Amino acid sequence: MDLILDGIVQAFKLLIQGDPEVIKICLLSLGVSFSATLISLVFGVSLGVAIGLNRFKGRRFLVTLINTGMGAPPVVVGLIVTIFLWRYGPLGFLHILYTPAAMVVAQCIISLPIIMGFTLASVQQIDPKLRLQIQALGASRGQMLWLLVKESRLPLLAAVMAGFGAIISEVGASMMVGGNILGQTRVLTTAIVMENSKGEFAVAIALSIILMILVYAVNLVLTVVQQRSRLS
Amino acid sequence: MITKVKSIATVAATNLTMSFDVHKILDVSSLQVLPNEVLVIIGPNGSGKTTLLLCLALLMKPTTGDIKYSGETIIDERLILQLRRRIAVVFQEPLLLNSTVWDNVTLGLSLRNVSKNEAKDRAQKWLERFGVANLAKRQARTLSGGEAKRVSLARAFALEPEVLFLDEPFTALDSPTRQALLEDFESVLRETKVSTVMVTHDRNEALVLADRVAVLIRGQIRQVGKPDEVFNYPVDEEVAGFVEAGNILAGEIVSDNEGLAIVETGSREIEVVSNLKTGTKVTICLRHEDVTLALPGAESFTSSARNRFKGKVVRLFPVSSQVRVTIDCGFPLVALITRRSLEGMGLKEGQEVIATFKASSIHLISHK
Q1: Which of A5, A119, A130, A174 has the highest count of CB atoms within 10 angstroms of its CB?
Q2: Alpha helices in chain B (DSSP H)
Q3: Rounded to two decimals, what is the model's pTM?
């Protein structure tokens, strides 16, 4: 019991004191995951809409692939990205292994199928007749796609939440491609794992609480936006 | 100098076919929408009405054939977009986007690059015209079926289209809502005189709204004409069956004399006003409401009606304020009488009655 209490007390100490190391870790966590979410949002929504609205050969296979990707284990993604970015790997010339860039790449790969899957599902459930109606109102192809994305904004915000939630709390890939280097690639999750293995439970608990507060805060903002757009 | 000859037709379809796999669901050799007219396309479910409408409204590409707007054949995509911005389509469902009523009505206007001020004026005007201006700030998803339908009509009219297309716009509404809206819609159509193509399976709507009616059965236009022409003089049995021409009996003319023909059907002979010649095989169409019933006791009175048949009531079936009486008088005959008459006569199933109808109330379809 003392252990948990200790952890909570220390968490608030760290928060209030504004320990520069902890702040740096938090900022890196948020920075990497935000960038990854943003990138996969751009690609995920466009690809999701394209797959959702068109019929082509191999479509079903692609959709199965995306759905499988939604549950892809981060460690496996980490392993693949590491191999690709390894000094003698196919993309070794980029020299980004063990940098935040590599972490962004790995997290993109994890969140892309999630955002694609959500987008796909949400544009598919739009009444096909609504597409005809939008065309009939005089929309060009581009205008129609934009209106359809706007129409599915509620599930799309859910997609952002799911995608962001999956990668901010992911540890396997970040550990493998980032390396948990202090001041460079150490993020909250990798720090928690490390503190835990060192037996520093109090610090681990403190960092966990911070992580959960961050995830909650981000989701709170997104939820407010989502629910407001439902009502307004 | 080349002078372009403009066709008088606003929209014209020629040799239009639409096939899915091997099934040809549409085969229209020619159909024209004339300027300022209301053309109502009627037909049973699955006859291809919606497909035809979508082709005419440039929302679906026909398998073969072409559609001309003001005499010009439509070929490239850019032109299609330009033309779509001059027409409007209203579907069976209101199909409003998830935003406010106001945004829904102004969306099409902004897509068509109508200035903000004009869009505002038009949206306000048409929301008012359809009696829903008070809903402008509401979320479209919170509207009732009738309100949403009014908004979708206001949205279409705000576009001030050159041609208006409607696909069963009143089908999903309850009866009082539908009647009220139908009346409003009718007066708006008369005022604006917009060229209109409406698809429906409701004959009543066709009677109220149409300048011309086209009957589409199994993908083919069987008859085009003024509503009373189509409803009273159907060209074949299927059209007659759909427009509910009433009693439909097969027969053959056994004698003709100065415009009065005798048609044998079953073992009975019916007198009909017609110039068709003896030996012609015909279909007899007789509206249910043109058959008069009397009780056998009153037989002695003389009537101008040429046809009198004694029969037995087989079935009584109420239809709103009236009752359909099916009689067996050597051939099946259906009469439509009011509930009051039924009660007054005390008609029961199994009872004997005399059915009479005039030789002139019969429409004959001849089979050459």
Answers
A1: A174
A2: 49-56, 77-84, 101-111, 116-129, 145-158, 175-192, 203-209, 227-232, 237-242, 339-345
A3: 0.79
